[in-house]
Amino acid sequence: MTRLAPPSPRPLDYSRADWSGAFRNVLRELDGERLEPSSGSIPPEIEGCLYRNGPGRLERAGQWVHHPFDGDGMIAAVRFADGKARFSNRFVRTEGWQQEEQEGRFLYRGVFGTQKPGGWLANAFDLRMKNIANTHVVRLGDDLLALWEASSPHALDPGSLETRGVTLLDGVLQPGEAFSAHPRFDPGHHGARRMVTFGVQAGPRSRVRLMEFAVDGPDAGRLLAERSDSFPGFAFLHDFAITPNWAVFMQNAVAFNPLPYALGLKGAAQCLASKPGQPGQFWLIPRPGSPLADQAPRRLQAPEGFVFHHLNAFEEPDAGEAGTLVLDSIVYADFPSVGPGTDFRQVDFDSLPEGQLRRFRLDLASGEVCAEDLELRCCEFATVAPSRVGLQARHAWMAVAERERGNDPLQAIEKLDLVSGERRLWSAAPRGFVSEPVMVPAADAAAEDDGWVLVLIWNAARSASDLVILRAGDLSEQAVLPLPLAIPHGLHGSWVPGSL
Ligand code: CO
C-alpha cells in the first residue's frame, strides 16, 4: 500500500460548542422565502433546485435523541431561477413524527440508541421502528423521495414539499421492505439515464435486491430491471457504487448481536461490532442490462477497514470479466459508534477514527485487491460530477477537516484532482461547519469541473445556516446566502436541474 507524505499537525482552531450548537430543533417551516446574498452574487446560469435531507427534530419534552441519526427527517429546498434563490423547508410527515408531535414526547426507540422514556423495561421487546425518512432526498418521476434505508421511501411533492405518504413505487416494494438511501444515477451507460439502487435483507445470509429505474421521459419512475442475490453473513451496506457492468458493495467485517437491542439496552445500530483482524469482502453484482447480466456475483476479499460511503467506481479499459475494477471509498480504521453512556454533543473527536479516501484496485482475473491512499485528511461526503458516475473521473469534491491530520469536524471543501493529486481548499473555519457538497454542472459544461458546488454551512457566528456557492473549478466563492433558519448538521442532498 502506498502512503502519502507524513502529517504536519496544526493546533485545533474550532470550538466544540460552535460545532454542537447546530444540534437543535427546527421550529419553523418556510415557504419560498427569498434569499439575498450577504456577499457576492448568484450566478444567473444556475437554474434548478437543491434538496437536502437531515434530522430536524432532536429533542422532545427535554429528552434528546441518543444520536442525531435518530432525528426526524426535514427537507430543505433552495430553488434557483433568474439569479434569484428561494428557500423552503418541511418536515416529512411520517407516521411516527405525526404521533410524536401530537403527544409531545418520544414514542419510539431509535436505531442509533434513542430510547423511549421509562428505562430499559419500557424499551425491552419493543422492536417497532419509526421510519424517520431523514437520510437522502432524490427526484424520481413526479415524486421527491425522502429515503431511509431500513424501510419504504416517503413521496413528497417536489414543489410544495408536502408529504404524499409512504410509497411502494407502484408495487415494486413490499410494505416495510428495505430500500437504500443511496441510489446512484447512471448517466447513460446503456443508453438512457437510470437510477440504480438496492435493498438489503440482513440475516445469517443476506439478500441484496438490485433495482434499476427509468428517470427520464414518460417512463420516469418505472422499474426497468432487477435481480436478487444472497450472500453468506450479516450485511451492513449503507452505500454502493456502480460501473457500466457492475454494482459494487463493500461488506464490512461486522457482527450483529441483537440481544441488547431486544432487551431494551441499546439501539439496533449499537449492536453492530467490528470484528478486528477480520477482513471484509467486496461483493460484485453484474448489472442487469450489461453483457455480464447472466453471471453470478463475485466475492473478493477486502483489506481491513470500515466503509459507509464510496466516492465512485470505474472499470479500466476492457474490464468486463477480467479487467480491473477501481473503487474509491472513504475508509475508517474501525466502526465509529457512540456508546450507550455518551452524549453525542460531547463527543471526543480524537477518540474516533477519521475517514480517509482510499482507492481499491480489484483485479478481476486474479481476484487480488490492492489499496492506495488518495487523501489522508479527514474527509466524508465525496462526490464526482454527475456525468462521471461509474466512469473514471478526474475531479472529486468532498467535505474535509480544516486540520491536515486527525479526526475533526468537517469545516472545509476540498477539490481533489484524482490523477495529479493536486488539491484546492475552501474553508469555513474557524466558526463554520460544512455539509455534503452538491456538484451542479453547468448547462453546457465543456469540462468535467465546469459548474458550481453548493454547500450548506452551519455558521456558528450567527447561530444559523448559510448556503455557499463555489465555482466547481477553482472553489472560488461566488455567493453566501444567509438562511433565516438554523438547520442541524445534515446528511445527503441532490440537485434537480431546470424549472419545476
Ligand atoms: Co450516507
Identify the CATH architecture: 7 Propeller
Number of domains: 1
- Please compute the radius of gyration using only Cα atoms: 21 Å
Q: Supply the CATH superfamily name.
A: YVTN repeat-like/Quinoprotein amine dehydrogenase
Structural class: mainly beta
The overall pLDDT average reads 91
Name the shape in a single word: globular
Ligand roster: cobalt (II) ion
Describe the structure.
The chain has about 500 residues and is mainly beta. The chain has a single domain, classed as YVTN repeat-like/Quinoprotein amine dehydrogenase (Methylamine Dehydrogenase, Chain H). The protein contains 4 helices and 35 strands. Strands 2, 30, 31, 32, 33 and 34 form a 6-stranded antiparallel sheet that branches. The protein has a 5-stranded antiparallel sheet with strand order 1-7-6-3-35, with no helix packed on it. A 4-stranded antiparallel sheet has the order 8-9-10-11, with no helix packed on it. The longest helix is centred in the N-terminal third of the chain and has 9 residues. The protein is globular, with a radius of gyration of 21 Å. The relative contact order is 0.16. The mean pLDDT is about 90. The structure holds cobalt (II) ion (CO).
Quick recap of the structure?
By secondary structure, the protein is mostly beta strands. It has helices spanning 16-20, 95-103, 119-123, 259-262; strands spanning 33-35, 39-40, 48-57, 59-60, 63-64, 72-81, 84-91, 136-140, 143-147, 154-156, 163-166, 184-186, 194-201, 205-214, 223-232, 241-242, 246-251, 254-256, 272-274, 281-286, 298-301, 306-315, 324-332, 356-363, 369-375, 379-383, 395-401, 410-417, 423-427, 432-434, 438-441, 451-459, 464-471, 477-482, 493-497.
